[in-house]
Design brief:
This protein is mainly alpha-helical. It contains 14 helices and four strands.
Length: 373
């Protein structure tokens, strides 16, 4: 659900950690709580919204597809999936130090994202009087709670579980209008599917790269993400005004923000991707391609991520972010100047990508899709 508006920096996995974690010592709960509580542009956020406006949602234009999806979600096809067949104790601790830090950062970031969704969805389900909205968000909260709990069990096996209750109380909340929630969550769920299925397919082809058992759960897990995205696609298609006029500019902004965030995050985890046998750049553009194909069900435009000029601007953003990090590490007046130049370069790269030509898309008559990637 991240939708950053500026790029101050892309934190590496080590940024939130105590120094001993990088010296080869065992990670601690303090380290993972610092990761979860990190408040940067690229870190997962907690959200709140205008709950009263959600009462006015009318899904009548997509009622047939809506009822079919709600029946599918109520059947809960993954209710037996998130059960471990073995303990995960000792696996994270045995990883090489750099990989251990980056993998833990990946898990904590995923946990925080899933749990932030659970918190928002639970609050919407509690406060709305709209029966369709109440049912949907109750089901979404159930799934996200299950996902977050499963990841936290993996961390607890390593003695580094996150205190989710404390996280709820201590994390800052960002206000988003309902339509921004819809754009951001739709993309978050669909890109989450694309990320998980790409990793699952990679490890199915190269099982020797599966350095932790949690990856074996990714196929059915990402189908939950896909169904969640389908629900938000229906909400968006139920109100055509959300996909027309000036809102097309917001769609472009959210698409680019989500893609750019992923690109910066993934390039901050080189050891993690190397262990999976993935090149971050190739992996990210594969995910962008999948997400672009999926989002044709609802968005009237898509980004031309295959264009060499677009890719050069994305690398400009990555280089600018490296300059920001170097300036922050250097400190002092020279470091501040270096950081400001990097911020300006990042803003320019983002603006040039935003203004890059897009591809038009005619929306299909049927909204629903199947996870076939």
């Amino acid at each position: 659900m991240n939708a950053p508006t500026t790029f101050d920096r892309a934190p590496g996995a080590a940024d939130a950690l105590a120094p001993n974690a990088l010296a080869g010592d065992t990670l601690t709960k303090t380290d993972t709580m610092a990761m979860a509580r990190a408040d940067t542009v690229l870190s997962p956020r907690f959200y709140t919204t205008d709950f009263a406006k959600l009462d006015a949602i009318d899904v009548s234009p997509v009622r047939r597809e809506w009822d079919a999806l709600m029946a599918e979600m109520q059947a809960d096809p993954n209710r037996q999936h998130f059960r471990r067949t073995e303990s995960f104790a000792g696996i994270i601790e045995a990883l090489d130090p750099a990989l251990r830090v980056e993998f833990t950062d990946f898990l904590v970031s995923s946990l925080t994202s899933e749990f932030s969704g659970c918190v928002l969805y639970s609050e919407i389900a509690r406060r709305t009087r709209n029966p369709d909205v109440k049912l949907l968000f109750k089901l979404l909260a159930r799934d996200e709670s299950r996902h977050a709990g499963f990841i936290n069990e993996v961390l607890k096996d390593a003695g580094i579980g996150v205190d989710l209750g404390f996280l709820t109380r201590s994390k800052k909340y960002t206000y988003f209008r309902p339509k921004f929630i819809f754009y951001a969550v739709y993309l978050s769920e669909k890109i989450g599917y694309a990320r998980y299925i790409a990793i699952f397919r990679q490890l199915a082809a190269h099982p020797e790269r599966r350095f932790h058992p949690i990856f074996s759960w990714f196929e059915q897990w990402c189908n939950d993400e896909f169904r969640h995205g389908e629900a938000f696609a229906l909400l968006l298609r139920a109100d055509p005004a959300l996909l027309r006029g000036a809102n097309r500019l917001w769609i472009r902004f959210f698409l680019l923000s989500v893609y750019a965030t992923m690109y910066l995050r993934d390039h901050a985890r080189p050891e993690f991707h190397a262990a999976l046998g993935l090149d971050p750049t190739d992996y990210d553009y594969r995910v962008f391609s999948i997400c672009s194909q999926i989002s044709r069900q609802v968005f009237p435009v898509e980004l031309d991520t295959d264009c060499p000029a677009f890719r050069r601007r994305m690398d400009d953003l990555l280089a600018a972010n490296g300059q920001i990090e170097a300036g922050r590490a250097r400190g002092g007046v020279i470091g501040l100047a270096q950081r400001l130049v990097g911020i300006a370069r990042a803003g320019l790269a983002f603006a040039r990508m935003y203004l890059h030509r897009t591809k038009p898309n005619a929306l299909p008559e049927s909204v629903r899709m199947q996870p076939s990637w």
